[in-house]
Amino acid sequence: MDDSTSSEKTPIPPELFEEITLEIDRLSSSGDGLAFSTEHRLVFVVPFTVPGDTVVAKPYRYAKDGTYYHADFVRVVEPSQDRHDSEVKCGYFAKCAGCQFQMMLPQFQLDHKREVVSKAYLEYVGVDRKLVPEVEPTLASPKNYGYRTKVTPHFDAPPGARQAQRKGNKIFFTEPPPIGFQVKDRRITMDIEDCPLATDAVRVGMKKERKRVIDTIQTFSKGATLLVRENTDRIKDRPEIKEEDFKAPVVSKRDGVWEVKNYETDHKATIKEYIGDYLVTNLANSFFQNNNSILLPFMNYIRERIMPKDPDATKPSYLVDAYCGSGLFTITLSSLFKQSIGIDIDPHSIEFAAKNAKLNNLPDAQTKFMTETASQIFKSIEFPAEETVVVVDPPRKGCDVPFLTQLLKFSPQRIVYVSCNVHTQARDVAILLGGIPNVDAGFGLGGGAYELESLRGCDFFPQTRHVESVAILQRKKPVIERIIDETLDTKGVLTKPADIVK
Ligand SMILES: C[S@@+](CC[C@H](N)C(=O)[O-])C[C@H]1O[C@@H](n2cnc3c(N)ncnc32)[C@H](O)[C@@H]1O
């Protein structure tokens, strides 16, 4: 073995916290810049950078798996042509962990997110390229700022509070602590007065909520997470109504209807959100999509794609909304189906989902909800699988094997898998395409039952690294049907040699 070659490959660790200059090569799926330093023969991860930037960075930690260093971004030496610092709208940018992409144009962010979706399937999970369609251009958010309908600024306990608590004592704040969000890559809270990603009503609420806490800080002996969530009311205009009657930060009128946007800070308050003309209510502290501006185009996209592409395929009449929350998909899609059922593990969400069905005048016989864990869901569903679409929208960790096993055994005609974590989505979709040992989904033991029809990222979180991903799957046709489709024309005339049968 040639020693000189191996020593040339040996990484030379940098001095921690000493400035080094790096050229950023690409973005990771977590939105950080990646640079390979020929001097150190090492990869450095530098947040708040753009491919093509030359930057000064300070390495501060070796990654646990020993393959790269984390470095703090210090300054730009030579900007990339894709860096647009004039686009940055927030004074806390490049310190706060809340967002990473404000210096990139919206289209650059959308293109990056498209690549993240593609790489999750092809590289992270390694799905066979032949089984993955080209990822469609990312669905843009109508609002790039002012879209977040919920923020949760927090503050830490007073210094020494934990030790005091162990001894049965309390320490109260003597002055306000930083109240805001986390410093990027540090467990430190930074004081943040305003967030331009939030809607106007939430920004007003955030300032007032901070003031309330600061004014009464001597009464707090613990840290806390504050909640500020937008609430929307629509009120039909009447001659006696005047704009100033609404004590709300944002009021507008369209087609004879007032839209009043206010905020709630009580975790148990009921929140109203409109998606087009649909009204969805839920508890202020329970899950709901945080970007109201994209929900209508997003739901329109799902509506357009939920039925089979093939005009000869059976049109599904039944919808199962697994992980339904307060019923967003069931409520907005049920008019396309004879019957729909939504399932969620959280009884409060199911209570709201049932209320939401009534608020939207959906007949009981058409729409049902039940509290159940997703891994038990198909035991009580009697819909014919070949006429059913299942919408799957799990938490970030994705689905578990019992759920995927059941889903494969049930084998609905179509699956719409929505996820805020494309990496766990890609892992689960690979199972639906490739199968689970000992599960026969109609194509032999261990065989998968689905084709991935389309894949698209949706930009629910502009300026951040996050992307919502929608994968649409169609159950594969049995082999004999495929041969008939591929060899006979519409009149039943043989158009191709039958050697396809091999
Ligand atoms: C990402 S949210 C989706 C909610 C809803 N589809 C929406 O868009 O508003 C995930 C939902 O999964 C539910 N959930 C988590 N684990 C579950 C499980 N094992 N079975 C059923 N639901 C579960 C949560 O309560 C939450 O409502």
UniProtKB/TrEMBL annotation:
The active site is at C420, C420 (nucleophile). InterPro entries: MeTrfase_TrmA_AS, NA-bd_OB-fold, SAM-dependent_MTases_sf, tRNA_(uracil-5-)_MeTrfase, U5_MeTrfase_fam. S-adenosyl-L-methionine binds at Q289, Y323, D344, D393. GO terms for biological process: methylation; tRNA processing. Gene3D superfamilies: Nucleic acid-binding proteins, Vaccinia Virus protein VP39. GO terms for molecular function: tRNA (uracil(54)-C5)-methyltransferase activity, S-adenosyl methionine-dependent. This is tRNA(M5U54)methyltransferase. Keywords: Methyltransferase, S-adenosyl-L-methionine, Transferase. Belongs to the class I-like SAM-binding methyltransferase superfamily. RNA M5U methyltransferase family.
